[in-house]
Amino acid sequence: MFKEFKDFIAKGNVMDMAVGIIIGAAFTAIVKSMVGDLINPIIGLFMGGVDFTNMYTVLAGDVAAGASLEAAREAGAAVFAYGAFIMAVINFLIIAFVVFMLVRYVTKVKEASAKKEAVVEKAPAGPSEVDLLTEIRDALKK
Length: 142
Hints:
Elements: H1 2-10, H2 12-46, E1 57-60, H3 69-74, E2 78-80, H4 82-122, H5 129-141
Helix pairs in contact: 2-4
C-alpha cells in the first residue's frame, strides 16, 4: 500500500497540480495588489474618486455618515458590502484573463514544437555515405 501511494505521489500529474496550487496562491497576492493598488485608483479616477472597497449600505445599526466599511463593521452594524463584491468580480476577471493569456501562450508554444517535430520527421532522408561514394566511384569510372 505504501508503494502504491509512493507511485501515486511520484506521478507527474500530482506534482504538476501541487506546483500549480502553490504558484496560484502566490499569484493571488500579486493580483490583489494589482487590483487594490493599481486598477482601483485608475477606476476611481475615471469615476470621480469613487473607492469600491468602501461602498456599502447599512442594513441595521448606527454608523456615522462617511465611515469606512471597516469602521462600520467594528461598530457592529450589519452592512451590505457591495463594493467588496465588485472587487471580487474585478479580481476574478483579471485572473481569468491572465490565465487565458497563459494557456493561449502555452498552446502556441506546444503547437510550434509539434510543427517542428513534424517537419523533422517528414524531412526526406538523403543518400547515405555509401551511396554517395558509390556514385562518385561510378562517375570516375566513366
